[in-house]
Amino acid sequence: MSTAMSTEENIEIKKGLAGVVVDYTAVSKVVPETNSLTYRGYPVQELVANCTFEDVAYLLWNGELPTAEQRAAFEKTERSQREVPQALIDLIDGLPTDCHPMDVCRTAASWLGTQDPEADDRSGDGVRRIGLSLLAKMPTVVAYDMRRRHGQEFIAPDPERSIAENYLYMAFGDGEGSPATHEADVEAFDQSLTLYAEHSFNASTFTGRVIASTTSDTYSAVTGAIGALKGPLHGGANEAVMHNFLEVDDPDKAEAWVLDKADNKEKIMGFGHRVYKRGDSRVPSMEAAMRRTAANHDGQKWVDMYEKMQAAMDKRTGIQPNLDFPAGPTYYMLGIDIPFFTPIFVIARIVGWTAHIAEQNESNALIRPLSAYNGAAQRSVGA
Ligand code: COA
To answer: Span of the secretion signal (predicted)?
Structure first.
């Protein structure tokens, strides 16, 4: 991302705020030089290998991993809040089945705000309470939205299951073949949630912080963040990745497809990153989950395509895959409809967003940058 000088005022313009450090955060740290990402000091790979998504949510919100008692209390509270009011189900039923599921998520987040008399509680505890409530309810919304588009009945949340397993259960039931019944599928899905949970000042988190900085409420901040995440340059990339895999559909055609795109200077979704320039620290863990999922779902074809596209892209441009590149085919192999890939990202990132909103509120300054004017010179209506 280049910088440019404004001719009028001789000011350096940082397009896209690239390289601009706007605040401190204690939530996570990205070190592009070493491909490292830590949540509250813990390397994300270690969290994926040793902790559940629930542990990670607790960590991001509270700064420490939970003790056994804290975990039990946290899970109990989350599981008790998964039901959504019938009015929300009716609202979803009234939305078109051809609108993007991210529009449904955004509408649901906003609607839930109208039902919460404490929506304006901007204290740390208040924001974390809202974050937990949204984390509990959004999987119910997303799973039902997918089912209704197939003409299937609502499946109520099951408080005996983890967040990952419960989501897969609400989306697919627990009949034979449902990923909810396969430990390895639940684990891959759980790990993807951990990897998607937080990533410092990315576009949607920054959007949430901008809204919080006006002293608006947390639901408004999350609703705006969902809008930012929808874009294909951000969260929407995991869907675009799978469309590309399906377009290529043959590992033997993958290299030529990549080279053709590169020749035409077209962007390939799932590659590149604003911060990481030598590789995304989250990719190895997600790639391992993708390989395990492929082994269980006869998906070697997608792994072969993944490898060939990655190698061709590396050879031609040196640009490395980001998290969306292995996440897209993993979700596809689990049987999730492509338009629901980004809503799953929402479920995970609610944690990061609200951790940042709490931090913003604790040390707030209105976020309001400047611009350099390059429009018409001053003139008069009467002239
Ligand atoms: N495919 C092909 N070329 C890419 C590319 C991609 N995915 N990502 C970056 N590039 C190239 C650009 O064309 C540009 O080349 P140029 O200097 O010859 O014009 C150069 O790399 C810099 O890209 P730019 O878009 O300016 O960098 P950025 O920091 O603004 O981009 C992204 C970051 C994420 C927006 C960008 O890499 C992208 O669009 N990736 C695809 C979408 C995606 O996967 N998003 C998910 C991010 S987690």
So the answer is: none
